[in-house]
Amino acid sequence: MDASLVSLLLTPDEMAAADAASARSGIPSFDLMERAGQAVAAAALRQFPGALRFVVLCGPGNNGGDGYVAVRTLAGAGAVGAVHHLGDPQRLTGDARHARELCPLPSEPLDAYRPRAGDVVVDALFGAGLTRNVPDIVADVIRRVSEAQVPVVAVDLPSGLCGRRGVPLGAAFQAAHTVTFMTRKPGHLLLPGRSLCGDIQVFDIGIPARIIREVAGEMRENRPELWRSLLVEPGSETHKYRRGHLAVFSGEAGKTGAARLSATAGLKAGAGLVTVGSPSDAMPVNAASLTAIMLHRIDTVKDLKNWLDTAKLAAFVLGPGFGIGRKARQFALALKDRPLVLDADGITSLKEKPSELFDAFAGGEPHLVLTPHEGEFARLFPDIAADGNLSKAEKAVNAATRAHAVIVYKGADTVIAGPDGRAYVNTNGPPWLATAGSGDVLAGMIGALLAQGMPVFEAAAAGVYLHGEAGKLAGRGMTAEDLAVHADVWLDP
Fold first, then answer.
1. Burial class of residue 368, CB neighbours in 10 A (0-12, 13-18, 19+)
2. For residues 357 and 362, what is the distance between their CA atoms, to the nearest angstrom?
3. Contact at 8 Å (CB) between 404 and 360?
4. Cβ atoms within 10 A of the Cβ of 360, count?
C-alpha cells in the first residue's frame, strides 16, 4: 500500500469516483474485482483455518461480485463453500454477472441459509454505499447469524453499516474481520461502525495512488505524519519564553482542581511558562498546590485586560472548572484576538447566544479551539447536532465553518475539524480516557502546543493524538492526575 494513502478516508461517493476514473484510465474493472475477491478469500482462510464451511452471501451489485470471486477462490483452495444470493441473480449485470458465471458452485436464496456449527460467513451483500435500511430478509439473516455466534468476514464494510456515517441502517452484521480496498471509509472509524468492523485489512487492488489522491476529500485518520513536522522540539538555543507562556483560568475556591490539571498538562506538554489566573478567593488553595506553575490574581475582566497589556502571554485555556455565566462570557470575548482553547464551562456559558462568540473570533486566521463533548456540541450548534443525515465528521466541519474555529468534537471517535473543511478522526485513545478530568488535561495539552506557535488545526490534532498516547502510558485505572503526569509524551522519529 502506498504510504501516502494510509491516513486517507474516502467516502462511498469518492470511492465510486475512483473506480470510475480507474476504468477510464484503461484498467479493466473485472481485474479489480478479481483482486478484491481473492483478497477476501485469502483473509478468510488466514483468519479461520479451522472453518468447516465458508458461506458466502452475495448481494445484487459489485459487492456480490466480489463474493462470487471469493467463493471460487475458496473452492480452488480446497475449502468447503456454499453460496446464497439476495434478489434474482439473473438480473446481475456487468462484472458481477461475469463473476457469477465463473463461480463453480450453485447458489440458493438468501432466506434459505441456516447457520450451523463450523460455519464462517463471508458477507458480500452490500458495500459501503448503502443508504437505506436493509430489507427485512437481510435483517433476519443478520439476526440468525448473530444468535448462532457464527463469525463474519465482511467485504468492504459489514452489510447494513453506512459507509459515510458509521451508523447501522436498520441492522448490521458484527464482523470479526473486514477487508476493504485502497483506503478505509469514514464508517470504518466513526462509532458505532468501528466497533462492528472487527479487525480491518486494507488491500491494494491496483487503483493508481494518483487517482485516489485526486478524488479524496479532506477527511483523514488523525496520524502523526499529518502534523509531526510542526511539533516544536527544544533545541540548544531554546529558552522558556520561546516555548511560549500559557495562561489557564481557575474557578472559585471550591473549583480549582480542573484548572490545575490543565495547567500541569500544559507545562508537561512543552509550554515554557504556565500561569494560573485565579480569583482572589482561590489564591490560597492554588498557591498551596502549585510550584513550577505561576499564579496571578484575576477577578474581573478589567484585571484580565490589564494583564493582557502587561504580560507576554501566548495562548489561553478557559473553561475547566471556571463556572458558568457572565464572567466566562466576558473573559472569552476579551480574548478574541488571542489563541484560545474554550472548554467545558466556557462553552456552556455561550449557549444562549453563541453567535456572539463566533462573531468575535471571525476575523483573521482561525485562533479559537472549541472542545465540546456531545452535549456541549448540541448546546452551541443545536440545528447541526439534530441533523441525522450528517456524519459526526460532517457535523464538526459545519460547526467549524460557522464558528470560524477548530472544533474538537470529543468522544471515543473524537473528530478534529477546521473551517477549511479538514476533518481528522482520532482512533488511538484507550477507553479508560473516559474519566473525570481527562478533558481538562486535553485542553491544557492543546493550549501548550498553541503557546509554542503551532498552527491551530495541527495543534488541536496533535493534542488529541498525544492525549491518547498519554492515556496508554498512564494505563488502566488511571486518574486525570496520572494522565497529566504523562502529558510530556513524545513521538519517536
1. buried
2. 9
3. no
4. 17
Amino acid in the structure at residue 419: P
Report whether pLDDT(238) > 70. no
Q: Which of 283, 211, 293 is nearest to 253 (CA)?
A: 283
In sign, the C-alpha dihedral spanning 442, 447, 450, 455 is: positive
Residue 168, helix vs strand vs coil: strand
- Determine the angle formed by the axes of helices 29-47 and 12-24, rounding to 10 degrees: 130
Cα–Cα nearest to 184, from 207, 217, 157, 165: 157
User: What are the DSSP E strand ranges found in 182-314?
Assistant: 199-203, 219-221, 245-249, 273-278, 294-297
* Angle at the Cα of 405 from the Cα atoms of 470 and 456, rounded to 5 degrees: 50
Q: Are 285 and 252 a contacting pair, CB within 8 Å?
A: no
- Max CA distance (Å), the chain: 82
- 213, three cell numbers: 489522491
Residues 6+ apart with CB under 8 A from 357: 332, 333, 342, 350, 368, 403
d(CA 143, CA 110): 13
* Separation of alpha carbons 415 and 400, rounded Å: 11
Helix H or strand E segment including 144: helix 136-148
Residues 34 and 236 sit within 8 Å (Cβ to Cβ) = no
In this structure, are residues 298 and 277 in contact, taking their beta carbons and an 8 Å threshold? yes
- Band of pLDDT at residue 236, cut at 50, 70 and 90: very low
Nearest to 46 by CA among 83, 6, 68, 79: 79
- Average pLDDT of 300-307? 98
With cell 474538537, the residue in question is 408
Question: What's the mean pLDDT in 435-449?
Answer: 98
**Residues in Cβ contact with 120 at an 8 Å cutoff, skipping those fewer than 6 apart:** 44, 48, 51, 53, 54, 55, 150, 151, 152, 153
The DSSP element (H or E) to which 416 belongs, if any, is strand 415-417
Report pLDDT for 4. Answer: 80
